[in-house]
UniProtKB/TrEMBL annotation:
UniProt signal peptide: none
Listed Pfam families: Kelch_HCF
GO molecular function annotation: transcription coactivator activity
Gene source species: Anopheles maculatus
Annotated localization: Nucleus
Name of the protein this chain belongs to: Host cell factor Kelch-repeats domain-containing protein
Primary localisation category: nucleus
Record bears the keyword Nucleus: yes
GO cellular component terms given for this protein: histone methyltransferase complex
Coiled coil: none
Amino acid sequence: MTANSEATSSDLVPALPAKHNAILRWKRVTNPSGPQPRPRHGHRSVNIKELMVVFGGGNEGIVDELHVYNTATNQWYVPATKGDVPPGCAAYGFVVDGTRILVFGGMVEYGKYSNELYELQATKWEWKKLRPKPPESGPPPCRRLGHSFTLVGDKIYLFGGLANESDDPKNNIPKYLNDLYILEIKNNQLQWEIPTTFGESPPPRESHTAVSWYDKKQKKFWLVIYGGMSGCRLGDLWLLDTDTMSWTRPRTSGPLPLPRSLHSSTLIGNRMYVFGGWVPLVLDDVKVEKHEKEWKCTNTLACLNLETMTWEELDLDTDEENMPRARAGHCAVGIHTRLYIWSGRDGYRKAWNNQVRVCCKDLWYLEVERPGTASRVQLVRASTHSLEVSWQAVPSASY
């Protein structure tokens, strides 16, 4: 792995959808201030309110940098960190709980993977190495990359990834994983747990995605696993009921997206937005799956409504000038009603004998829903000459 601009008349055309019956338009972020991070792939991002926090990744070496983008002020900055700063890593696990960010595993050198856990307290940008206790019945998680690491309620769920069965990093013997660990983080006694699950488990995979979804009707949390890589791209969807610890493979309706890996899945409301990744090359509408020899990057966007389990068709402006170019290994976050994506690598086509990698340096966002309405106007102060009124701002409205 090498691993505020002036508005034009066209900018003022409303581009906000009412759910999904209006045209969605990507917008490229232009002229951000501050030190912009160098392009990369295999990095991860989380959001703390309006901030997008980006760490790690690779581009001619593994990156150990931490960058923060303020979506409200269009500004990048590099916080001064302290404490047990972790080594650079790529394809690792990255979650946020309030202002506490946790990093697990990933690639620290070519062929050398990690199973270390670090915490970053964003209120003071201080790193701390954590040493959770091993499970009561079994070993702790092995070194890995490409796993999912997802906060569901007050617990983190670690699933799958890729391990190196060789002790020699130069002699890489890949092993796809489908193990499941739980780490409770609400107390100071951190300990890994190997849960007992029911039903058929998802097959081994890496470079998949996972999101946490709270079903308001059933009043329960679900872990949603999608796609990944296990010798070929995967397009399967799995749900874990975190109350009963039962796996199910739900039936979906709507047009299925192509199988993919190194994509992003971002939950906004009840919808999971799947962007980019590597997909099998499609020739004459025939997918090359079982023994795929060739695949390519994509810039397609798919949307799964988790309430109805329907892949919804999006009315998306597909003019190439108005879209991010194809990429994989990018990062994505949902902030209010916006989906943000940054960087990633692009090779328009990738074959066994042709691995062209170009890292993107652009930042885009997509308004996926109409922002919420402002609150009622409040009377602040009144006199015989004036009225002072106020209402809460709508954070992601452009105009």
